[in-house]
Amino acid sequence: MRCLLAAAVLATVTVIVSGESFFAFYKLSLQWPPSACSNRQKKCEKIPNTFTIHGFWPQLSDKEEVPPYDVDPQCTDSTPKTADDITPQLFGQQMLKRMDDNWPDLLRESNLGFWKKEWTKHGMCSDYPDDPKSYFSKTLELAETYNPLDQLKDEGIEPGESVYKVSKVVDAIRAKWGYNPQISCKELSQGRLLLWEIRFCVNKGDGDNPFGLQNCEHTVDRTTKKGCKSEEDDIRFPGSPLSGPEITGESLLNYADEL
Questions:
Q1: Is 0.90 topped by the overall pTM?
Q2: Is 156's pLDDT higher than 50?
Q3: What is the pLDDT of residues 169-192, one digit of tens each?
């Protein structure tokens, strides 16, 4: 049976959540394109100079994403829309431009294909299983609200050649929004670490503070074999993609799979 849950207001926008979902919270993952495009076998066609959306992921816990609907259909009591429903017509011209600007596929030619993948893997088990437009719209709203670039610059963290402690990035985000983020790094040859993603942990849409921030349990993503392990790690925030001797093929494929 379909339920309609009225969510509260975030940034003066009223949100309607459709269907009942069974997860703990979301991670809003924003990636830094020069890092994402570093040391790639296939060069990125365009490299935005701001953080872009990687995804908006329902989580069972800090280390465990909700499995895709085709793996576990019990993630929702609604019948989700499929990837075939993700079309340019779904968004309309104005929203489509926002999607292209904020949620580009950095490695491939089709933004739409990226959005379909994210919907199939994450959106179908979100608060909006039968309303993909609202899922993407809410993700855009959050990404535009919490884009961290200006805050990093205000705290003296500028794209370029400088090296920073992971803790400095964590502190900069917490100083602005009051909650701990999660930092994910990309490791190049010779142990060079790049700031790859900043992730915000976000409440579900049916709680006391719908779509508000919460502390991420772990400020460093340690789930990847190659990446940051501690807030004391030194990382670069490159102004343009870096190159060098190829990292291992397995690691390269892992990065490609996550995009």
A1: no
A2: yes
A3: 999 999 999 999 999 999 988 789
Separation CA 247–CA 228 (nearest Å):
16
Strands 163-165 and 4-10: unpaired
d(CA 181, CA 189): 26
Determine the average pLDDT of the residues in 90-94. 97
For residues 48, 51, 56, 61, the Cα torsion angle rounded to the nearest 10 degrees is 140
Strand partners, 158: none
Q: How far is CA 114 from the centre of its chain?
A: 13
Buried-state track 76-90, b at ≥16 Cβ within 10 A, e below 16? bebebbebeebeeeb
The C-alpha angle with vertex 167 and arms to 27 and 151, in degrees rounded to 5, equals: 70
Q: How far is CA 6 from the centre of its chain?
A: 25
- Distance (Å, rounded) from C-alpha 170 to C-alpha 164? 11
User: How far apart (Å, rounded) are the C-alpha atoms in residues 64 and 148?
Assistant: 24
- pLDDT tens per residue across span 109-153: 789 999 999 999 999 999 999 999 999 999 999 999 999 999 999
> Computed from CA positions of residues 88, 91, 96, 102, in that sequence, does the dihedral angle turn out positive or negative?
negative
Q: What is d(CA 26, CA 65) in angstroms, rounded to the nearest whole number?
A: 9
* Percentage above 90 pLDDT, the chain: 73
